[in-house]
Amino acid sequence: MRSGKERGSVQRERRRAAAMASLGAAVFVAGCGRAPSFNIMGSFFPSWLVCLTIGTIVAGLVYALLTRLGKQRLIQWGILTYPSLAVLVALLLWLLFFN
Question: pTM for the complete prediction?
Fold first, then answer.
């Protein structure tokens, strides 16, 4: 059996844990206040998806341009370079227009 002092300590710890859980939930839910999105033909798309699509298109255009100019052989790690370029463009667009 626990003494009164031990029960009070356990209850305080439970209250503290409940308060921390509530605070954590409030912090995570606060990010849902504004969701930037685009209305494309009546359907809403998140802006990060639009930025990623544009980044992928830019990376594809750079690949096509380098191939046409005969400089594609200079890129040794294309499997890493072009996805990294797409992510770079997507993040830059996000920072420029949505932050």
Answer: 0.60
